[in-house]
Amino acid sequence: MAEPVTLEELKAFARVDFDDDDATLTTMLAAAVEFIEQATGKSYSDADVPEKAKIAVMSLATHWYEQREPVVIDASVANVPLHVRSLIAQLRGGVLEPCEETTE
């Protein structure tokens, strides 16, 4: 089964130019693919993967790589960035509804 994003693509996206963290990045990449597939109810292991799905996977894997512990804002924990949640909603065929985080 082909992955929608390669380790090399993720490293370029995350601006990682060394090999020391390849095992960690590979784990983050696999977890991000699984997360996005479960969140959208779709499989992205074929050759025709939407660019939005690739961006969502790489963004989430990069976020988890850079933020190795939960981000606490007031009393809530933000584990999935807003732009990734928006991409997931679009991949499901909908849109992310405005919330306190997006209104001014």
UniProtKB/TrEMBL annotation:
Q: Which Pfam families match?
A: Phage_connect_1
Q: Which InterPro entries match?
A: Phage_gp6-like_head-tail, Phage_HK97_gp6-like
- Classification via CDD domains: gp6
Annotated NCBIfam families = put_DNA_pack (TIGR01560)
Protein name per the record = Head-tail connector protein
Query: Which organism does this sequence originate in?
Result: Chelativorans petroleitrophicus
